[in-house]
Amino acid sequence: DLVRREGEGGFAISAKLHPLESSGRIDPVTIGIGLAPRASSRQVRVNGVTTSANALSEWLAILWLTPAMDRLYQEGASSRRRFLDRLTLTIFPSHARHYSRYEAAMRQRNKLLSDEKGYDPLWLDGLEQIMAEQATHILLARRQLVDLLSEEIAKQEDGLFAKADLALEEGVDSRDLVTHNSEEIMPLLQNIWQKSRTSDAAIGRTLQGVHRADLKVTHHAKAMPAAQSSTGEQKALLLGLVLAQVNLITEKNGQPPVLLLDEVAAHLDPSRRAILFDILRSKGGQVWMTGTEPSLFETAGEAACYFQLDKGEIISAF
Which element (helix H / strand E) includes 31? Predict the structure, then answer.
């Protein structure tokens, strides 16, 4: 945004990743991402080879917390679903591929159902089978992520940041889906979509499926939905979630993620800010934090590096 508004309109950045021994990888990898002036999309390269942005998840996990996410609990289910899928992707890198295939098959199904000349049931059977196969991967990955993340949240020290209780609404009206057997889930989903063809055709979209899922968050100490909590409590719940995910990624992947905390320090009092810096130092990963005042980072310690941006450029480090 800065380079488009105040700079020349493009940027490029590259990095060499040196895996920790605990990650099981040996050789370093070079990644790069850039945006040409007036280009509409970014380019991603891994070891000099152009690839998709999703491919980066196979090499490193990235988490971020930005001011726009403060509305997560107030907005519709789609925002929380995207947040859930970003978290899931850091543990299960194939999650994005499954979701992309699911959406492609669903779009074809919707198009076929909307054909005024009618539709071929056998063609729909094939599309719904693809949807069921991909949806099963998506559903089970989300379930596992929510379970693992809930365990990490339970380990957090009381009183530092608000603890959350998590519940997954899967987007499908079927109690039979409580099974964790993929061979049982697939035919159940296919049956749901087969029975809903007429109603889906009438409304022009698929009404049930993993694309309708929602992540329900509750303030544990108050047994109150996050949407009804105060603004400060909502920020604390979100920060607690992200810190728990950092622990989960470190445990599962063998190395911590790259973490961006945008304007987070400004919303904490000095004591909690100092606690946050201590927690982040203990994680051992690379953390990027932004703020408008240098005083916000006075207790960050000597391990921190400081940069100042102006008109899309780094003009000084202090």
Answer: strand 29-35
